């Protein structure tokens, strides 16, 4: 079994932990007795930062070997998405978010892919996430990619490197290590190069932001930037970059369903919320778009977040059937 196939199975088991039938629980017990399977399960859950994984592994390792049925069926199903529904309750000062893993309908895992002779990817692949529907994918090399809502990425076949293009939106990468084939992400005019690490890239109309969560990243756009864990590079539309230190002990805020605004223009806040809103959100004036916003807002409730911002910054929300306007009072 290839590592790619094993990761797909691990993702499926993690996704279905809360709804396994007694028979499926026995099948999971048998599957977890394999060391490589346990390692794959740890990796997927670690990328998701699921705290329950240690308990699950401990529980499966401690169960008696006769607890499972010998006629175990290995016909698990593929993983289309890790993402779940967020239940949010708003108060005057804050929101309480409950995040749970759920899934899109499962389909049987396809036959294991053939091992490529090339160090790079061997076929073109288009990955996309719809509005309000973040998605995840395991690439052929074992790299995990998490696409934010309304985002798009293309996998490019090349001989000696693993190349992808982030054509729209935002993505978090947990890159499989491979010294022979660097992992290259092209985003706008910038090129991001790594061997094996985890990082986040966000593309907005006027800025591109690269944040490193582990390992090292090299970014080239005119100038060259070397980033380590806990550093963030912001590139403007002219290619000018600023590197700052940031907290990276936890996942990017969008991976847990939140938007963290620390004195950023309302136009950027809205661009992030727009990925989760079916209706366009527009401004009546540049003065409104340039307002600096601070706060923590739920991504999956964009209209609620817009209303909270408007209340706090003396704005009015004009809700029309096909658009939301933010105006001064």
UniProtKB/TrEMBL annotation:
The keyword Nuclease does not apply. Gene3D superfamilies: 2.60.120.1440, 3.55.50.30. Residues 138-218 form the FecR protein domain. The keyword Lipid metabolism does not apply. GO terms for molecular function: sigma factor antagonist activity. The chain crosses the membrane at residues 81-101. It comes from the Bacteria. Pfam families: FecR (PF04773). Keywords: Membrane, Transmembrane, Transmembrane helix. This is FecR domain-containing protein. It comes from Idiomarina rhizosphaerae.
